């Protein structure tokens, strides 16, 4: 299947432009450098998912959205509410900075992001920037940045969905305008009975793990904009999601509650040559694990609380020196607080002060970007990073780019200051992890087609690994690892033979340089293909995903098999304000898995089960 599909993509890619339809491909504006630019002018490998695309696909969660993008591979430990790893060009989740309206949302301990708990109905678009972006964004932006921009619904929309395993969802979004004030809002609720997410050993006795793992999510958000006339514009962003999910655990807690929210107040003032921006933001990521059913006559184990609270203030300014030259600079202060967690720390809070400067040059033929940044993390010292990008427009439709940059990820407070842990000891001398990134790329873009080729090389040094100490029988973090991820991405978007096509192919070589072995759970080849067609009131979309075999973690000492799945979605405009929606996931009910939970005594793998074939139907009403 893979070889055949790859050949087909290559053949389509060389079709002469004369066979392409006249349907335009949208020229996307993004904020990769913290101000709006055409995507090709950012000199960054970028993928964007717009609200219209989300509604065409009728996708129910963020991991499914991301898994269609070039260079991204999603590994899931079950369905809704379960742990999800998002590998950007082979790098683990913690090496990708994730933002909601520019606000950090990761767990500051592990670097994990609760992708499954980000409500899709809150999203206007997702910008995925690939490559080292720490000189612009700071710590964690080693492999890239995922920036989720929240909803800006025109008019009002009510969406109702029902689906497999008693799934139910209701979402309402809309906009009000009055003189100088604009208000965008959204509310949502979804729940499902779920299913048993781990395969079970038939020889083992029945336990509390033999159950369905349910999920629910209640969320709301508001976005206010107010025009201050000559004093600029004010904006307020506020998002919150809370709910519960079950998971499988042989002992102890087996469910969690989450309460995540972000708030940001921003100001912007603009003149002909100077743009100033300032913001203050607050965020919380909180996950409380508990025992869902307490047997009679027993005491439940204590709850495990994982809590990260952040506040950040930032100011930046951009000066248009000439039509070809822009200068930008800024300063920020970030505070991270883990004191509400159940784990104990000798120091549970830290500050980071950062300053950065940038220059952008564009004379319509040559493009140059240069950014330098210095972060001073309390307790961990200073980290200096930079990026240097060069672009050349060979013609009106062809742009070449060269990217080079450095990045870092600050150690967690757990690494340096955990105390009274039965498993871990701190290392106050722990250092930041460091990344070096290089890329060569070319983009061909016309009104009807977009092709992109990127050759990338990403190296991470001073990797933090928990090393077992025989004297204490505990793990101590140390900077002992090195990882090297390199590969090539091929992407194409075009219209041909009356159909819309979007395809991407990624070849990846991800290695642990110390152990001299492949990094686990990374597929060497990934191919995505989306075919869609619009007929008057009916829109149909068929998506295919192929993933090559991948190594498991070393404990299981095996390769996880390759797989191909198909997803079908359709929308029918029944009346002008009413659309009927449908999504059929895993069309062929393919049996596959991307992660292993355990194994039997005879070595049989017991995987985290994917949900299998699922059907969702619903309606969207605009008014």
Automatic annotation (TrEMBL):
Any one GO CC term of the record: cell outer membrane
InterPro entries named in the record: Beta-barrel_TonB (IPR000531), Beta-barrel_TonB_sf (IPR036942), Plug_dom (IPR012910), Plug_dom_sf (IPR037066), TonB-dep_rcpt-like (IPR039426)
Protein location: Cell outer membrane
Membrane-related topology note: Multi-pass membrane protein
Chief location bin: membrane
GO biological process: cobalamin transport; monoatomic ion transport
Domain TonB-dependent receptor-like beta-barrel: 171-587
Signal peptide: 1-22
Domain (TonB-dependent receptor plug): residue spans on this chain: 41-145
Domain of life: Bacteria
Record key words, sorted: Cell outer membrane, Ion transport, Membrane, Receptor, Signal, TonB box, Transmembrane, Transmembrane beta strand, Transport
Coiled coil residues, start to end: none
Similarity remark: Belongs to the TonB-dependent receptor family.
Protein name, as recorded: TonB-dependent receptor
Species name: Pseudoalteromonas rubra
């Amino acid at each position: 299947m893979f070889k055949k599909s790859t050949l087909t993509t290559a053949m389509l890619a060389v079709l002469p432009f004369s066979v392409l339809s006249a349907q335009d491909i949208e020229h996307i504006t993004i904020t990769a450098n913290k101000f709006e630019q055409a995507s090709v002018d950012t000199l960054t490998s970028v993928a964007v998912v717009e609200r219209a695309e989300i509604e065409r696909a009728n996708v129910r969660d963020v991991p499914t959205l991301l898994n269609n993008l070039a260079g991204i591979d999603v590994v899931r430990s079950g369905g809704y509410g379960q742990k999800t790893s998002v590998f950007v060009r082979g790098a683990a989740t913690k090496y990708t900075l994730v933002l909601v309206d520019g606000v950090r949302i990761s767990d500051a301990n592990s670097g994990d992001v609760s992708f499954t708990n980000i409500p899709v109905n809150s999203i206007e678009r997702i910008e995925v920037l690939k490559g080292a972006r720490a000189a612009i964004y700071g710590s964690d932006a080693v492999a890239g940045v995922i920036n989720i921009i929240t909803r800006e619904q025109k008019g009002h929309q009510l969406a109702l969905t029902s689906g497999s395993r008693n799934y139910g969802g209701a979402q309402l979004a809309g906009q009000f305008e009055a003189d100088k004030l604009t208000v965008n809002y959204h509310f949502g609720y979804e729940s499902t009975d779920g299913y048993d997410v781990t395969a079970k050993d038939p020889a083992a006795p029945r336990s509390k793990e033999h159950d369905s793992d349910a999920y629910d999510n209640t969320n709301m958000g508001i976005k206010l904009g107010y025009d201050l006339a000559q004093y600029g514009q004010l904006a307020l962003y506020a998002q919150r999601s809370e709910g519960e999910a079950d998971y499988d655990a042989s002992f102890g807690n087996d469910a969690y509650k989450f309460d995540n929210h972000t708030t940001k107040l921003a100001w912007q003032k603009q003149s002909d040559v100077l743009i100033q921006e300032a913001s203050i933001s607050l965020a919380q990521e909180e996950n409380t694990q508990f025992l869902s059913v307490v047997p009679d006559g027993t005491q439940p184990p204590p709850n495990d609380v994982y809590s990260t609270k952040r506040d950040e203030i930032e100011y930046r300014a951009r000066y248009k020196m000439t039509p070809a030259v822009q200068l930008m600079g800024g300063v920020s202060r970030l505070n991270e607080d883990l004191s509400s967690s159940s784990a104990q720390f000798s120091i549970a809070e830290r500050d980071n002060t950062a300053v950065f400067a940038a220059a952008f040059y564009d004379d319509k033929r040559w493009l140059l970007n240069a950014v330098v940044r210095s972060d001073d993390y309390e307790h961990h010292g200073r980290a200096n990073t930079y990026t240097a990008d060069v672009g050349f427009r060979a013609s009106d439709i062809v742009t070449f780019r060269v990217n080079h940059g450095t990045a870092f990820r600050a150690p967690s407070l757990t690494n340096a200051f955990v105390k009274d842990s039965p498993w871990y000891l701190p290392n106050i001398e722990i250092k930041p992890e460091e990344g070096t990134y290089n890329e060569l790329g070319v983009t061909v873009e016309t009104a009807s087609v977009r092709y992109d080729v990127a050759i990338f090389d990403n190296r991470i040094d001073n990797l933090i690994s928990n090393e077992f100490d025989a004297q204490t029988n505990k793990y101590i973090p140390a900077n002992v690892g090195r990882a090297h991820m390199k590969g090539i991405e091929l992407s194409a978007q075009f219209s041909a033979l009356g159909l819309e096509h979007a395809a991407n192919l990624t070849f990846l070589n991800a290695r642990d340089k110390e152990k001299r072995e492949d990094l686990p759970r990374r597929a060497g080849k990934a191919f995505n293909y989306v075919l869609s067609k619009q007929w008057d009131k009916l829109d149909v979309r068929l998506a295919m995903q192929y993933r090559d075999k991948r190594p498991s973690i070393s404990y299981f000492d095996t390769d996880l098999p390759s797989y191909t799945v198909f997803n079908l979605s359709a929308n029918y405009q029944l009346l002008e304000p009413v659309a009927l929606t449908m999504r059929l996931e895993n069309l062929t009910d393919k049996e596959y898995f991307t992660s292993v939970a355990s194994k039997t005594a005879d070595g049989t793998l017991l995987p985290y089960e994917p949900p299998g074939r699922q059907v969702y139907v619903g309606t969207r009403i605009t008014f």
